[in-house]
Amino acid sequence: MSITIKDVEHVANLARLELSDEEKGKFTEQLNAILKYAEKLNELDTEQVEPTTHVLPITNVMRDDTTRESVGVEKAMLNAPDEEDGQFRVPAVLE
Q1: 9, 28, 32, 86: least buried by Cβ within 10 Å?
Q2: Which residues lie in coiled coils (predicted)?
Q3: CATH T-level topology, domain 5-43
Q4: In the chain, where are the structural domains located?
């Protein structure tokens, strides 16, 4: 598989980029070099390699989800810049 100038123009159009003819040629060469390098991976024998999602073992570090007492209205309103009837009062967004 190789990248053509037409492919580069298509991607540039999708990204709303304006490229000069020189840039199109340069990007075509660079993308083809990347693909050529990636094709080297096909030469590797990976039959005995177990699939992994990460090279290191990762465990879930999140805490257990347990129920607990919630903050009371009075305590929550202590830091409120403005409060009315036990609710946060904010400036109107719509007129």
Answers
A1: 86
A2: none
A3: Histone, subunit A (1.10.20)
A4: 5-43
